[in-house]
Design goal:
The protein has helices at about 1-25, 30-40, 45-75, 80-100, 105-125, 140-160, 165-175, 180-205, 220-240, 245-265, and strands spanning about 215, 220. The longest helix has 29 residues, at about 45-75. Helices cover about 75% and strands about 0% of the residues. It is globular. The protein is mainly alpha-helical. It has one domain. The chain contains 10 helices and 2 strands.
Length: about 270
C-alpha cells in the first residue's frame, strides 16, 4: 500500500509540476523537489542523501519536460533564440559547477539555499513589472546572457531546480523581456542547465552509499519514470494555457506559488 501511495503522490505531483512547467517555463523542480525529499526521508534514507537524491531526480525529470515545453513555446514564436543560445552555453558550465558543489554540501544547507532563493525572487516578481509590451523583444546582450546562464546553471545544481523560477523574473527585470517571451526562452535554457547538473549528480552519486536500489547516482529511476509519465503531456497543456493568460496574472500567480513552496521547504 505504501508503494501504491508513493506512486499516486508522484503521479499527481508530476501532473501539477508538468502543467506549471509549461505555464511558467520554470521546470517544476520547485514543486517536485520538496515532495521527493519527503518521500525519500520518510522511506528511511538519510537526510543529506535524501536531499541530494531529490535534487538529482527532480533535475532529471525537468529535461524531457522542458524539451516538450520548449517545442510548444517555439511554435508560438515565444522563444528568443538570440538570448537562449548564450544562456544555454553559460548554463551548461554553471550546472556542472553547481551540481559538483552540491555533492559536498549537507542537506540542510542545500534546502536553505533553495528556500531563500525562491522566496527572494517571488517577492521581486510580485513588484510591478518592467517588461516591454508583448510582441516586442527584450534587450539582448550575448555576454550578459552567458553570465546569467552560468548563474542559473549554478543555482540549478545547488538548489535542485531547473532555474526557471529565477530565470523568468530575471529576464523580465534585467532584460525587459515580455513575460511570455521570458517563459519560452527560459524553457529552452533549462534543458541545458538541468542536463549539465544531472551529469554532475549522477557522476558524484555513483560512489555514494545508503541510496535505494535502481538509483543511477543521485537519480532514483522509478521515481523519475513515474514523474515523467505525467510531466511531459501536462507541460504541453500548460503551454497552451499560458498563452491565454495576461502577463500580470502569470506574474502574480507565479509569485504566490514560489512563496508557498519556499516556505514549506524551509520549515520542513
Amino acid at each position: 500500500m505504501e508503494t501504491l501511495l508513493a506512486a499516486a503522490v508522484l503521479v499527481v505531483t508530476g501532473g501539477t509540476a508538468g502543467f506549471a512547467s509549461g505555464l511558467f517555463g520554470i521546470g517544476g523542480g520547485f514543486l517536485m523537489t520538496p515532495v521527493l525529499y519527503w518521500l525519500f526521508s520518510t522511506g528511511g534514507i538519510g537526510d543529506t542523501e535524501a536531499t541530494r537524491l531529490a535534487f538529482g531526480t527532480s533535475l532529471a525529470v525537468i529535461i524531457p519536460t522542458m524539451v516538450s515545453g520548449t517545442i510548444g513555446h517555439h511554435r508560438r514564436e515565444a522563444v528568443d533564440w538570440k538570448a537562449a543560445v548564450p544562456l544555454a552555453a553559460g548554463a551548461v558550465w554553471g550546472g556542472l559547477f553547481g551540481g559538483t558543489v552540491a555533492s559536498f554540501l549537507p542537506g540542510t544547507t542545500l534546502r536553505t539555499i533553495f528556500a531563500v532563493l525562491v522566496i527572494t525572487m517571488a517577492v521581486r516578481m510580485a513588484w510591478p513589472g518592467r517588461s516591454c509590451p508583448e510582441g516586442q523583444k527584450g534587450r539582448v546582450s550575448g555576454p550578459a546572457c552567458a553570465v546569467l546562464g552560468f548563474f542559473i546553471g549554478t543555482v540549478s545544481g545547488l538548489a535542485g531546480i531547473g532555474g526557471g523560477v529565477l530565470l523568468v523574473p530575471l529576464l523580465v527585470i534585467l532584460f525587459g523581456f515580455p513575460v511570455h517571451s521570458a517563459i519560452g526562452t527560459s524553457s529552452a535554457c533549462l534543458v541545458f542547465s538541468s542536463g549539465a547538473a544531472v551529469i554532475a549528480y549522477i557522476f558524484h552519486g555513483l560512489s555514494a552509499t545508503g541510496l535505494p536500489p535502481l538509483s543511477l547516482g543521485y537519480v532514483y529511476l522509478p521515481a523519475w519514470a513515474a514523474l515523467v509519465v505525467t510531466t511531459v503531456p501536462l507541460s504541453r497543456i500548460g503551454v497552451r494555457f499560458s498563452h491565454t493568460c495576461t502577463p500580470g496574472f502569470l506574474q502574480g500567480l507565479l509569485a504566490v506559488l514560489m512563496v508557498a513552496i519556499g516556505l514549506s521547504m524551509l520549515v520542513g
